[in-house]
């Protein structure tokens, strides 16, 4: 990751989003004690006595007409802080259970990707690890095999090779297992560690794990879409790429999609208030967003300029423009999609509305910052990007 992104090592994680992270050799402990004490101090309750319920049982509350007004935002902020407290307790437990259940679904699939090459046989389970061409021995014999072969369920390969006594079996699968044990005994064990091998490209097992080859082995291959180059390119920022990817797949909760879930939902575009909000309207047919897009890309595209979604997608995916201009166009597209969507969400949730000129300045700053971080990298062609970008600005 350090080769693709600017990173710095600041040591072990100790505090993140209100959660203390205590790392020991026996595990990791998550705590929100410091966060809870901070809330108590800010609300003036740090010296109060601890009780099971913060309110007297059966207390009736009425409106105080003669009291001075209070700022409701302070109350809302305090209550909002309390919502984050259970994250390391019941919520953490539920998330952990969900994660474990999801992982357990892939047990059968994962077994076919792992093999063990026996050297010493010490850490390898005779019954549950796939150390022979026969596969997992427990799958061949089931639990009755322990009695039939006289081998304990917890036995390792090393223990079996050293202590197994061959017998005459009638069942064909037991005869095959017996031969496999005697074959490995004849080869002999060494003092080296067993080698765990992972299945990769071409179903070949190798002593190293390759996530790319594993992913290609378990997924159903699909033909490449034309627009992928416009989203996943050198110098892109992951959060902007993911947001753009969601937009391309029309997965953003725009007004037209909200209507499919709730016919009473307000589907009007909150930026221009003149049309139903859809993906194609929001990017960039809306008068609000078209102003932003035009200001950022009009000079970059020249005669090829367009604000129609399908045409914009073609422009960033093909070689209509080249070099630094193509990178700037793609990056401007992604930052614009991300910033416009955040502005749209902010307005729907009552935040202060921003003028297009403010968003233009913000996007312009993000692009300049990205160019500055990329310039000077070995093997890249971003050295002239800042000159091209400045020449396209008014």
Structure description:
It is a single chain. The protein folds into three domains: 1-46 and 78-103, no CATH class; 109-206, no CATH class; 228-392, no CATH class. The chain is 48% helix and 6% strand. Helix 14 (287-301) runs antiparallel to helix 16 and helix 16 (323-348) packs across helix 17. It starts with 14 loop residues before the first strand and ends with a helix. It has helices spanning 33-42, 72-83, 90-104, 107-111, 137-141, 145-149, 157-163, 172-187, 211-218, 228-231, 238-248, 255-261, 279-285, 287-301, 309-317, 323-348, 356-374, 385-392; strands at 15-16, 19-24, 27-31, 114-117, 195-199, 205-206. It is mainly α. The mean pLDDT is 86. The longest helix has 26 residues, at 323-348. A three-stranded antiparallel beta sheet has the order 1-2-3. It has a three-stranded antiparallel beta sheet with strand order 4-5-6, with no helix packed on it. It contains 18 helices and six strands.
What is the domain tally?
Answer: 3
Task: Name the helicity range.
Answer: 40-55%
Euclidean distance between termini CA atoms: 36 Å
Looking at the structure, what is the overall shape?
Answer: extended
Main sheet specs: 3 strands, antiparallel
Please work out how many helical segments DSSP would assign: 18
Structural class: mainly alpha
Beta-strand share of residues: 5-15%
Strand order of the largest sheet: 1-2-3
Gyration radius, rounded:
31 Å
Defining traits:
three-stranded antiparallel β-sheet, mainly alpha, 394 residues, 3 domains
């Amino acid at each position: 990751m350090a080769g693709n992104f600017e990173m710095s090592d600041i040591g072990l994680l100790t505090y993140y989003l209100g959660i203390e992270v205590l790392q020991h050799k026996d595990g990791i402990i998550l705590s929100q004690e410091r966060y809870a004490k901070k809330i108590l101090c800010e609300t003036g309750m740090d010296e109060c006595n601890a009780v099971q319920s913060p309110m007297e049982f059966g207390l009736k509350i009425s409106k105080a007409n003669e009291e001075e007004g209070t700022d409701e935002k302070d109350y809302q902020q305090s209550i909002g802080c309390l919502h984050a407290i259970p994250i390391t307790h019941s919520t953490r437990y539920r998330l952990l259970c969900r994660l474990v259940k999801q992982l357990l679904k892939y047990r059968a699939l994962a077994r076919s990707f792992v093999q063990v090459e026996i050297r010493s046989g010490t850490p390898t389970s005779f019954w549950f690890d796939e150390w022979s061409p026969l596969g997992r021995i427990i799958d061949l014999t089931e639990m009755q095999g322990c009695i039939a072969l006289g081998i304990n369920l917890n036995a390792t390969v090393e223990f079996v090779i050293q202590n197994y006594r061959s017998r005459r079996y009638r069942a064909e699968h037991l005869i095959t297992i017996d031969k496999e044990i005697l074959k490995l005994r004849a080869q002999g064990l060494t003092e080296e560690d067993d080698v765990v091998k992972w299945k990769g490209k071409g179903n070949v097992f190798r002593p190293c794990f390759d996530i790319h080859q594993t992913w290609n082995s378990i997924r159903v291959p699909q033909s490449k879409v034309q627009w992928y180059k416009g989203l996943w390119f050198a110098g892109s920022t992951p959060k902007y790429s993911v947001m753009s990817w969601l937009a391309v797949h029309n997965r953003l909760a725009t007004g037209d999609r909200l209507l499919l879930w709730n016919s009473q939902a307000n589907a009007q575009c909150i930026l221009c208030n003149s049309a139903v909000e859809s993906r194609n309207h929001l990017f960039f047919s809306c008068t609000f967003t078209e102003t932003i897009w035009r200001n950022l890309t009009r000079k970059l595209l020249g005669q090829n300029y367009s604000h129609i979604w399908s045409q914009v997608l073609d422009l960033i995916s093909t070689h209509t423009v080249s070099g630094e201009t193509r990178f700037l166009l793609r990056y401007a597209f992604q930052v614009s999609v991300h910033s416009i969507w955040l502005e749209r969400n902010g307005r729907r949730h009552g935040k202060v509305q921003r003028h297009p000129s403010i968003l233009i300045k913000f996007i312009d700053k993000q692009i300049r910052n990205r160019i500055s971080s990329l310039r000077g990298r070995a093997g890249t062609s971003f050295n002239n990007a800042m000159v091209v970008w400045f020449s396209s600005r008014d």
